[in-house]
Amino acid sequence: MTIQANNIGNIDELAAEFERQGVVRVFNFLEQNSLKTLANAIEQPGHYDNAFYLDGQNKQASDAEIKKLPVATQQQLFKNIHSIAAKGAGFLYGRHKIENHSPREFKAVLQLLNSDNVLANIRAITNQTQLRFADGQATRYRRGDFLTRHIDNIPGETRRIAYVLGVTPGWHPDWGGLLQFFEQDGTPTQAWSPSFNSLTLFDVNKVHSVTYVTPFAEKNRYSVTGWFRS
Ligand SMILES: O=C(O)CCC(=O)C(=O)O
Ligand SMILES: [Fe+2]
Asked: Fe2OG dioxygenase domain: from which residue to which, for each copy (predicted)?
């Protein structure tokens, strides 16, 4: 199976925008049939574990594993996740790291992002000539999910450019789930609604978050995210 991209558009304009603000969006990234195939696969609930931050560690547990816990323990778990989040650290969302055993639609999108053509375009847009490959994960943010402020540049890893491919049609910006950027001091700057079929690219040193998905969101926020690495 293959997933295909549309023509990426005017590289010089995209590069100028990236240079100006360290973030740029490519709209209408995937070809229509490929987009439908991916959107259909990404909504299947079985793919995801809940990723969250607790006791200073990144953890993962499926819905079934959480449901098996006594109700009081479940409540305490979310209380603990929230009390760390209140201090500005942490996250809760559904995550599926794309690996060999992943659904073929997920592998195909990662293959596209690693194709010579896409890699060359991303290098040209970001002026990062040393990019070698992309890793990826499918993510699902449900009501109550969030990812607090952070940067993606982790010591010891070779992440250079973060990407987010929006795979939810008809997202309402009042539902939350915005990709929010900040100044270093925490002042909010731009926020992007996770618009369908847009590929957002940003510098891994930019401070950002995914805002809380509100209790009245009528959909889940799905995307494929990851990093172009050197
Ligand atoms: O989903 C997004 O918009 C951004 C995700 C993100 O910042 C991350 O996974 O590090
Ligand atoms: Fe991030």
From this structure: 132-230
Report how far residue 192's alpha carbon sits from residue 179's, in angstroms, rounded to the nearest whole number. Answer: 5
CA-nearest residue for atom 3, ligand 1, is 179
Query: pLDDT of 193-221, one tens digit each?
Result: 999 999 999 999 999 999 999 999 999 99
Report DSSP state, residue 213. P
> In this structure, are residues 146 and 85 in contact, taking their beta carbons and an 8 Å threshold?
yes
Average pLDDT over residues 171-175: 97
Question: C-alpha distances in angstroms, 169 versus 40, 101, 140, 197, 205?
Answer: 11, 27, 13, 8, 29
DSSP lists the bridge partners of residue 133 as 229
**Residue 137 Cβ < 6 Å to ligand 1:** no
Q: What dihedral angle (degrees, nearest 10) is formed by the CA atoms of 139, 140, 145, 148?
A: 20
Question: Distance between CA atoms of 191 and 226, rounded to whole angstroms?
Answer: 19
For residue range 44-63, what is the model confidence (pLDDT) as tens digits? Answer: 999 999 999 999 999 999 99
Give the position, in ligand 1's atom list, of the atom nearest the Cα of 152: 10
11-229 has which fold? Jelly Rolls (2.60.120)
* Domains of the chain by residue range: 11-229
